[in-house]
TrEMBL record:
Organism lineage: Bacteria, Pseudomonadati, Bacteroidota, Flavobacteriia, Flavobacteriales
UniProt protein name: Phosphate-selective porin O and P
InterPro entries noted in UniProt: Porin_O/P
Length: 400
């Protein structure tokens, strides 16, 4: 290659290098300045405000898992079984977003996840509501919540109840609506709610059921009033409620609960009386005995529920639950007694840890369903009993 051409190429190369250098300087200098001033890695992942908010948030994972052995005897049932069971598994999130605003959310995993056609939430979402402190003594609830029914059986989370009595085993406990809570005096609180009486639309719940005067109401609504009282320095409490819900047009359920509780150091005793007169059977106990596409009308359920708890030591606690339910058909006319059910659940729990609430338990669940001669003659049923032995773990785990 001639020397002049080589020298010219070298000069061109140097000129090109200078141009590239200038261009890179224009690109790199702004980027380097941006990196120094706005690099996200230099900022905290959670701001102080967000960390403060997390201090008021509670996240819990609740589970009850048990090994059970059970038998059915009587009627047309003769069955034995042994299995592991997830009795309750749920994730709950609650907290205070503002000095006047709280929220509560709970998703139970071992429940149906089908979206309900009336309230548009899946059935496994039990709680999804906001609580607003409107005044010093007045709270407002809006969303999907537990009804303000009285009694103490209903106030227990399903985590702590191996088996509910017949009404609450079949009742719709979590529904959407609004409520007020007023602390009238130090020892007396009054609550009121207006709720949907069901989560499904009429056609999805009843389909082609044949009965007289069964029509869709304009609003399937449930009204609940509740009074909670405390006496004798809090040793004795009352929890009473009355409600009316119209399941279908001009026909509904009248439900009354009288709850009582005595608490003294290591011993507590709770007693609930429940009365549910239903112009349309919403619990299904009698309705399930009828032919398909029919519905029971004018039924009555009367219940008694008793629970005693005694803490023998910091690690051992004994429980005893007793329950009865009496069901009547055609209550406004012939008052036909259909059945009486009985239940007994003695339980012993062991809590080995001081800093975390994990309990191991052993329990017996005994149920007897005694059908009357009227029921045997009209519904072709027979009395039977169910016996279960449960050994398991109960763990309300606070994750945050």
């Amino acid at each position: 290659m001639p020397l002049q051409e080589s020298s010219r190429n070298h000069r061109n190369s140097k000129s090109t290098g200078k141009i590239l250098g200038v261009l890179l300087s224009f690109l790199v200098l702004p980027l380097s300045g941006f990196s120094q001033d706005n690099d996200s890695s230099n900022a905290p992942l959670f701001s102080k405000d967000k960390i403060k908010l997390l201090e008021n948030i509670n996240i819990g994972f609740d589970m009850r898992t048990e090994f059970q052995a059970y038998t059915f005897r009587g009627g047309d049932q003769y069955y034995n079984g042994i299995q592991f069971e997830n009795g309750f598994t749920a994730l709950s999130i609650s907290g205070q977003l503002h000095e006047r605003i709280e929220f509560n959310f709970r998703n139970r995993f071992n429940s149906s996840s089908e979206v309900q056609s009336l309230d548009r939430l899946s059935n496994d979402i039990q709680l999804a509501y906001v609580k607003v402190k409107a005044a010093e003594k007045l709270d407002v609830y809006i969303g999907k919540m537990f009804a303000f029914y009285g009694g103490y059986e209903y106030e227990f989370s399903p985590l702590y109840v191996l088996e509910f009595n017949d009404i609450y085993s079949n009742a719709l406990a979590f529904v959407t609506g609004a409520g007020l809570s007023y602390q009238a005096f130090d020892n007396h609180q009054f609550r009121i709610q207006v709720l949907n009486s069901r989560t499904l639309l009429y056609k999805d719940l009843y389909g082609d059921i044949v009965a007289e005067n069964i029509e869709e109401p304009i609003w399937p609504v449930n009204g609940v009033v509740n009074w909670r009282g405390r006496f004798f320095d809090g040793k004795f409490e009352t929890n009473y409620s009355a409600s009316y819900s119209n399941e279908v047009k001009n026909r509904g359920t009248y439900f009354f609960t009288l709850g009582h509780k005595y608490q003294d150091k290591d011993f507590s005793l709770m007693y609930d009386f429940q009365y549910s007169y239903e112009e349309i059977d919403t619990k299904g106990i009698i309705n399930n005995l009828l032919e398909e596409n029919t519905i029971a009308e004018n039924v009555l359920y009367v219940e008694n529920w008793l629970r005693a708890e005694y803490r023998f030591s910091p690690k051992f606690k004994g429980l005893l639950t007793l329950m009865t339910n009496t069901a009547y058909d055609n209550y406004t006319s012939t008052k036909d007694h259909v059945r009486t059910s009985y239940g007994a659940i003695p339980t012993l729990t062991y809590s080995p840890f001081k800093t975390i609430d994990i309990q191991f338990f052993i329990a017996y669940v005994g149920r007897y369903f005694d059908y009357t001669e009227y029921a045997k003659a009209n519904f072709n049923v027979g009395s039977f009993n169910r016996n279960e032995l449960k050994i398991g773990i109960l763990a309300p785990l606070n994750l945050l």
